[in-house]
Amino acid sequence: MTDVHLRNLYKTYPGGSAPATKDVSLDIADGEFMVLLGPSGCGKTTLLRMLAGLELPDSGQIVVGGRDVTYLPPKDRNLSMVFQSYAVFPHRKVRDNIGFGLTMRGTDRAEVARKVAWAAELLQLEPYLDRYPAQLSGGQRQRVAVARAIVVDADVLLMDEPLSNLDSLLRLTFRAELKKLVEEIGTTTVYVTHDQSEALSLGDRVAVLRSGEIAQCAQPLHVYDNPADRFVGGFLGSPPMNFLTTRLAAGDGPKVTADLGKQIVEGPATLRPHDGKPVLLGIRAEAVEIAHTRQGDAVRATVKVFEPLGSAVLVTAEIDGQEIKVQAPNTFRAATGDQVWLTFPSRHTRWYDAETELALEAA
Ligand SMILES: Nc1ncnc2c1ncn2[C@@H]1O[C@H](COP(=O)(O)OP(=O)(O)O)[C@@H](O)[C@H]1O
Ligand SMILES: [Mg+2]
Questions:
Q1: Would the CB of 11 count as within 6 Å of ligand 1?
Q2: Could you identify the atom of ligand 1 that is nearest to the CA of residue 55?
Q3: CATH code, domain carrying 259
Q4: pLDDT tens by residue, 147-173
Q5: b/e burial code for range 18-47 (CB count within 10 A of at least 16 → b)
Q6: Domains held by the chain: number
Q7: Tens digits of per-residue pLDDT, 292-345?
Q8: Phi–psi pair at 183, nearest 5 degrees
Q9: 8 Å CB contact between 260 and 281
Q10: Segments forming the whole domain that contains residue 78
């Protein structure tokens, strides 16, 4: 039973002007795959290194499997870590690289051989066991690093951008394999990435970090559909979520309306307390409905760019000076300068305070 609890972790590096992590608290369940997602420099690696014992927090607590490990050295934590670069020993064969951690712990040779065979099979490394790392591709070398991390029966598996040095096709393949592997072994995993598609694909939950703080932590699709703020909606998803500046009309009709390019979009009654205030309307590109003719209370827009993506088309349009991205079925056609009509289905619209950029409804 290895749950992980990070409690109010603060860390500022010597000479650092701002904290690398600031009051980070996170509860990770036994067997959970937790992704730490955020832009470069937001504190992901610092958090992982504190968990591993490679950095000490200034304050706060780290509890792993019920044990306070905050100030324990790495060797007393029973965690294993996979880094971004292929940290394999060039002068050892693949089999000895995989078994290295076990051999160091004094595990007997038969047991080492058994576990190496198990990991090699899981990671499809059996044909390469007697090769040296230089005779492997980048993807195979990173598999060796993962194999070495899983054979030691660590309580928690820590991975810091393990796919980022692989080319894009290999990254997709390895991502799916990694997901299957971790589901199979069931070890609690903390996985760091700046790649939002990896976070969506792999995580049981995703903690989105900004400037050393957790902006939101929830299941990937919940975060995708209900970003807690503009930063999260912009970071998760490709293209990023659209945010349009508008103002809620103060009226006493049954519906709340927002003014968009002198046109009207309906909002939920829960927005009533914000009547008259500037707000942001958030909507995903694929949730906007687009047509060449006026439909119901659609909003008029002008096409700026039309891009076929293959499985869909991406239209960049403008509403009264504001840009919006619309992802339409790949049968939709448009050209620059076309007038189109956009509908914002209310089940897909999200509303944000224009100043704080925080969600107005509970996310
Ligand atoms: N060893 C270090 N010494 C000083 N500052 C550091 C050190 N490591 C990281 N930082 C700073 O701490 C912040 C967080 O870095 P890091 O945890 O590496 O972010 P990420 O992994 O999300 O890119 C950054 O501002 C970075 O410059
Ligand atoms: Mg990092």
A1: no
A2: 1
A3: 2.40.50.140
A4: 999 998 899 999 999 888 888 888 888
A5: ebbbbebebebeebbbbbbbbeeebbbbbb
A6: 2
A7: 999 888 899 999 999 999 999 999 999 989 999 999 999 999 999 999 999 999
A8: -65, -40
A9: yes
A10: 4-235
